Amino acid sequence: MGDSEQEYIDFVTHHANALCRTAYLLCGDWRRAEDATHEALIRMYRLWPRMQKRHGLKAYARKVVVTTTLEALRRKSSREVVADSAQFHATPDLADPLGRLESRMVIHEALAELPPRQRACVVLRYFDQLSVVETAEALGVRPGTVKSQTLRALDKLRAHPGLADSFDLAAIGRGTV
Amino acid sequence: MTTRDLHDLLDSASERLDPFSPDPVALAAAGRRRARTHRVVMSGAVGLVAASVLTVASLAGAALKETSPPPAVVPAPDRATPAHTDLCSLSDNYAATERNHPWARQVATYWTTKVLELSDEDGTMTVRQSPDGTRHAYCVAGVPVDGIPTGGTGSTVVNQGIITPETQIVRYWAHGCGKASPRTYRNGRGSDYGKVDTCLGIRFSFAGKLPPGVTRVRLKGLGQDIDARQAGGFWAARVYTVEGLRGLKDPIVLTMYNAGGKQVFSKKYD
């Protein structure tokens, strides 16, 4: 096994789960998220020799994952129904397990109500903690588009009953994106 | 709420019990295959275009000489068919399986030879053989709850002890009710939001090909101690937990034994 292949294997070992989590927040379905991550990592293998010479492997991987996930969402049949797998993967929280679970379900519901592009902006900006420019690069759009889409997304999150009741989102987005 | 709080909320929402850890060697192999296919397609494209031009030209000429019968009407796919709940993966190549819904539907429909089948209140797990007998797939079908098909993808164990890619252990999960009645399910969306959910459990399905020398596969945990069913060189078992939402308090331990009763492999799922 060559060094290049070993580095690819190391990359997959260390980053696959993080990429899959991003994909999951974009599509709300672990199965699709894993499929998208698989597909992205396979695509990356073919480009790996060229990519190694550049910086920002993780950023490129994230871009491929986002593109693959959003492509899959566009193809998704409107009749397909998938379970909200967040319910099955809750982590123990002895203090308030059901409250914690409820919070997850609310954020999942709120994300599901956003258009894919706005959801991607929220996930990349606030989960992956990318800058506006990095988010724009990942989505292949202009920074101004990221700013406007993020603001619209945050407005919708503020208006969501579950989040409005539980959190004060007013502090986010006003002049910070 | 600060950006940090939103980050934490998103972070919490994407946590899972078993981190996604695909087999990188299998992914690299799939990448190599993809690269080979890409090269072949690119090199053949020019020839294909030329051949297509010739074919179209000859067909056009023939059409001028005779009237063809109207083409047969191919019925459109039945879009009203409910989403299939079978999740299928190749037995020896979980990571590289073309794990999309059409493929799973095809396997569940046409791979009718069932080497092994396990059924319970929450659905079935089958080991299916391809029509040509050369491949096998694991399929998990969850019982729809309130009309909603449920289920989730699994994880795989390879290259640990005696477990090789060929005998890899796969685990799926699906929404489980056990013996709960009535079986109601809250999906957290729309008008169903707020409905009381009586199905809070998980039905785990485990399967694999028996490694050489292994005669018994045992799963112990969650108050259950069962021997996996075996047939045709494969094994499968299903375990239910009502406490799935809060994590596995009692880990599941999968143990393999040889004919002499000696333990030859053990894996703890927690």
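qc> Chain A has eight helices and no strands.
qc> done
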